[in-house]
Amino acid sequence: MAAETLGTGRRFIVELGTGADLHGMDVTKAACRAVRDAIGHSCLCGLVEVLGMKNLDQIEVEIQIACPDPERLDLEAVKAQVP
User: Fold this and answer.
1) DSSP SS3 for 69
2) Exposure b/e, 42-73, CB count within 10 A at least 16 = b
3) What are phi and psi of 57, to 5 degrees?
């Protein structure tokens, strides 16, 4: 579940992702799948022109994750899914 914002603090893209690990019941694996799913459905073309950005490294990504056992979630593994 991702909402992408740029240094302006304005939100430009909102995308939802879903992920599940039914057999292993691994909340981190499910969250990683959800983040990859959301990113895979996002199209950021045009942001450079709209905002006059020179460097796409300026993009800030806010990720909100809902899972049944948040204490078992490896946040660093989830963050690693963001390009």
Assistant:
1) coil
2) eeeeebeeeeeeeeeeebebebebeeeeeeeb
3) -70, -10
Report the run of H or E that residue 50 belongs to, with start and end: helix 47-51
Domains of the chain by start residue, with CATH: 2-79 (3.30.1330.20)
Give the model confidence (pLDDT) of 32-63 as tens digits: 999 999 999 888 777 778 877 777 787 788 89
- CB–CB of 2/38 below 8 Å? yes
- Write the single-letter amino acid at 78: V
Q: In sequence order, which residues have a C-beta less than 8 Å from that of residue 44 and are 6 or more positions away? A: 4, 13, 56, 59
